[in-house]
Structure formats: structure tokens, C-alpha cells
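Hi R.,

Here's the chain you asked about this morning:
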Amino acid sequence: MSHDRLFKKLISLYFYDFLELFAPTLWERIVRSRSPVFLDKESLGKIPGLRRREKDLVVRVHLLDGDQASIIVHLEHEAQNHQNMPERMFMYFRRLLELYDTNQIYPICVFSARARKPRPTEYNIRCHNLNTVTFRYHTIELAHLDWRAFLKKPNPVASALMARMAIRAEDRPRVKAECLRMLANLRVDYDKAVVIGHFVESYLKLNAEEVRTFERILELLPQEEKETVMTYTTSWHREGRKEGRKEGRREGRKEGHLEGRKEASREIALRMRASGVDLHTIADLTGLTICEIESLSDAWNGTCQG
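And here is the predicted structure, written out as C-alpha cells:
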């Protein structure tokens, strides 16, 4: 599963928990007895100047201010270090403003990629000596956060995102154990816990030595916590192996199909080469490189001479 899909699935499932952790003043104003409404991203249409069409999450939440009071939360996850992120956030905001005819829009960008310094939190447009637009958005730099600061925050999103925070190499086994320990103590529904488990397993893949350290840490946990964590990890590994076998079969079929197409291209290239067609034309028609075509020709000539 891709970085974006992992984050989107986690935050969609635990949206209010995410806001409690990273936007507490907004969380306090929300009617949490009403479910968040995930808006149709396709209705936003294509935004001129941006290749990427789909926004990560656009959510309407109801406020305590009144029955009709609501706010739209636009959340983006950025796993790369794209320089145009401020412009993208502004373009998305402008489109949401047009579409929903409300200025009650709260933009958030979660950065999971490591960077030497914090990314911009605003986008400015200037004309001559006039600053015509100043647009600000809420940023969360996971790689700049200390995972220890979240140990005493009993929140399922914290139990997952600690795996993407600033972690020293020697702390990796402990962080994984703490993530799962927190999850065990929260007593999250198993199906929801699986999402967190996949997240942690994806971002804290331990080597053999780290696994041994991780297991020693588990042995020191209280018996009930240890049993719950072991139940989770055993089930996740079993499901992971099943999913891995399915993915392997899919990839095998895909690779077989691609190899079949490439073999057909090689045969066509050989016939065209034998007919005197120039290399560039063959490359354009078959998708093979000139080096591949020349190698095929040399191999064919060697076979014929033999």
C-alpha cells in the first residue's frame, strides 16, 4: 500500500482523534457525536495548473455554534519534498472556496518526508510593492516531532504516527513496542487496530537484531499487555503473509503478461530488421531501445552463423 493510501486510511478511520492530537482548539469546537462527512473529491474537478486532481481528504464537521454551523477541513499528506506545496494548498483552498461558497475552511498539510528545516506555512503573492495575498495553512512536520512527547497521550493516531517521528536508530525496537503497547491499552476494535498495525509494520520494519531487542522489551511488559500485543502481531503477520502471497500472484501474472508483450516486440523487431527497416523506426514502433535491437540482431546473426 502506498504512503498516501496508508495515511488516508488511518486518518479517515480516526479523523476526530487526529484533530484532538494536532488541532485541539478545533477539536474542542466540534460536535463529536455527529460523524464527519467525507465530501466527494471528484466533484472538485480539475484545478488548472495542477497535475494532481485528487485531494487527500475533504471533510465537513459540525460545530457547537449551532445546528447549521460547520467547517470544512482539507487535509493533505505529503511524502515528498515538493517545492510547490504552498501553491498547491492555495489552489485547493481557492477551489473549495468557490465550490462550497464558505470561508470556513481549515487547511492542514501533514509532512512525513524528512527535511533539513521546516517547510513553509504560507503562500504569498506580490504585485510590485503590494502583498496582494497571504494564505496560511496548518503544517505538521512528523519527522521533527519527538515520539516521547506522545507516550502519555492515549490516542490511536499517536500509536501509529510515532512510527514516523524523529527516532534514533537504537530506539527503533522500543518505539515499535511502545506503539503496540499504547494500542493494546486503548483496547481498540480489532478491525481498526489492523489499520494501525499495518501502518506501524510498514514504517518500522525491524532487522533481525532489532527484532531480538523488540522481543526482549515485550518480555518485560505486564502479562496482559504482552498477551494483547503478541495476539495483534501474530494475527498481522499471518494476514501479511496471505496478502503477500496474493500480491505475489498478481505481480507474477502482471510480469508474465509484460514479458509476453516484450517477447512479441522482440520477434517483430527481428523481422523488421531482417527486412532492412532502420533502427530508429523499429524502436519507435516496438518500444525497444536501439541497444536492445542491436543485441537481438547480434544474437540472431550468431545463431544463424553457428
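One quick note: The CA atoms of residues 20 and 27 lie 5 Å apart.

Cheers,
M.
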